[in-house]
Every structure is written in structure tokens, then in C-alpha cells.
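Revision sheet: C-alpha cells.
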Amino acid sequence: MEEGIPFHLTVKASLFSLLGSFFFCLDVALDVWTIVSLYKEQEYVYMGLLIALLLLSSILVQVFSWIWYKEKNIGTSTDKFAEKYNLIGPLHFLQLGVFLRCASLVELSIRKVLKFDIFQEAVAVHLKHDLSMLRLFETFSESIPQIVLMITIIMQEQELQLFTGFKVAVSFLMLALTVMSYHRHMREFVPEDKKMNWLSSGAFFLWNLFLITPRVVAVALFASVLPCFIAVHFLCLWLLLVLCVWRQKTDFMENAAGEWLYRATVGLIWYFSWFNVSGKNTRIKRILYHVLMGADTALLLVLWFWRTSVESACRNPLPINPYVLLVALPVLYIIGLLLNLLYYWKFHPKREKTPRLMLAAVGLLDTDSAAETPQTGVHKRMKNMDNNFW
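Predicted:
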């Protein structure tokens, strides 16, 4: 399969892989630092919520990673060493499974950068795909809930410190960058003239930033005044979204239990942002989704503004003028929708021009016979995401 891959990972891509692994480890260190800071400030309730969010997200990601390791797509020396000494299961139990994947990617990246004779191109492709999926899941199950919690703390304590505001802003930027990185990874399989340039990358980054930010801020504002009702709101809407995913007849995992876990995760992603799980007739689905989420976001903002107005007499002034938020967030959302339309009109590649290249790239197409091979494991996931990418 190595000879049949119609593209090759560049040294630049390998360096970015090393950089991505570094930032993953840095994110873990910052999470620990945040927990320690909350402990020192005696914010035990918020500290407990943060630990719970981190733990639940980690368990979710580790379960996906462990399931995919069970498919025996092991090819690096690091993975073979872990399998030989039966370390894969214990490492995932200890919430270290993703670090094992990062170590494997670092090994392959070093081989590429140093131009070792043995470089497993196909293994690197599969590993990068699974890691990009896991990081996307982590972003929506950990990073976004953390941002919601940080904004909620700011609004409830009615104090915005410069450093805290900076952390929130950087978190939003990193969130949009993570989503863009996943999309750029999918673009690695398309012809050179269809890869993302600076202009298309900027448009994709901005429309995700402008669409996700108002949604996350609206959820956080609502949680700051009605903390009990936000849980009810999330559960009701999440169940509806999971039902919608089920109606799409997704086929991403190898068994029914894994598929329902995937659907539940997509429902979580949909609570904050659009994520395509069906390769057909997506335009109408995207329109319906944005209408629903736009209306729900507006409802959360109105309820927050009403509740804030009622309690304004007995509370200190908010750190941000509520009228500014009430106007700015819908404007940002509309700008995001317009940039979304611009991106798909001008910058998104057309499917009919590149399907055979994509299939060959992921090892699903025999370049001699042009016949598709049976889809299982990582091949099945990559083919599925290929369909959804367009």
C-alpha cells in the first residue's frame, strides 16, 4: 500500500505533527495549572466542576482510542512495544492512551524529518487521521465546556480580570484553529490546486470563530443566571440532536455500542457547531441546523437579558455592558453565516474532481483495478469522513 499512496507527507507536515503533540501536552499542563489556581482561590465548587469536565472528556477520548486500538491497526515500534508487554489497555485505563498515539506520531515524524530509510507512510496517514478525530472530540467535550465555565465565573463574580479575559480570547482562537486543523488534515488528500491557501484558511477560521463564539457565550451567559436550567436545556436539546444523528443512519464504528457512542458525541458537537455526518443533501440540513441553533441562541440571550434586568437592582454592574452583548453576538453570528456561505461558494473543493485520489490515498482503492476494497477499521472511518468532507 505504501507505493500506491498518491501523496506523501512532507517534512513541513511532520514538523506540524510534532508541534501539535507539543501543544496537546501543553494543554494538559495548563489544565493542571487552572485546577491548582482554583484550589488556591478556594473556589472548590468550580474546581470540582472543572475536574469532572476534564475527567469525563478524557474518558470519552480514551474509550474511542482504545476501541480503535482493538482493531489491530498497529504499525509503529512504539505501538508494537506497548502491545508486546500488554500496556495498551492499562495505559488507556490510566488516561494515557492518547499520549501513546502522540508518541507514535512523534516517532514517525522524527523518521521523516531525519530521513530514516524506514518511514511508514500509510501508518502515518492513519495515525494522523485518528488523532485529528480524537482532538476534535476533546475540543468539544473539554475545551468548550471549560470556556463556558470560565465565562460563567466571570459573570457571576462580576469581575473581569485582564489575564482571565486574555485566556478566554485565546481559548476561542485555539478552538477555531483546532477545527481548521481537522479540515486541513482532510485537505491533505486532495490535489495540490485544491489545498487550503492562506485566504481559504482565513475564511474557514473566521466563520468557525464567528459562529461558535456567540453560541458558547450565549450558553455561558444563560448558565450564569439560571445554572440549574442550563443542564435541563442541554439534556433536552442534546437528546434531540442525537435522535437527528440516528436518523442520518451513520455507520462510523464497527459495532452498535461504538456507533451509539459516536452519535452521542456528534450530538455534543452539534450543540455548539455544525459537523457533517452525512455525505448527501447537506445544504438543506445545514440550513435547518443553523435556523434551529440561531433561534435557540437568541432565546438564551433574551432569557439572560431578562433575568439580568430583573436582578439588576440587587447586583453590582456586570463586567460587560449587557446591551453590547445583546447586539454584538447576533451580529457576529450573521457575519459567521455569511463567511460560511462565502467559503463553500469560493473555497471548498468539488467532490466530482477528486474522489479517486481520496480513495487511493486512504487505501480504499486499488489503483490497478479501480475496485474498492472492503471497509473496516481505520479505512472505514477515513472513507466515512471522506464522504462527509464534501
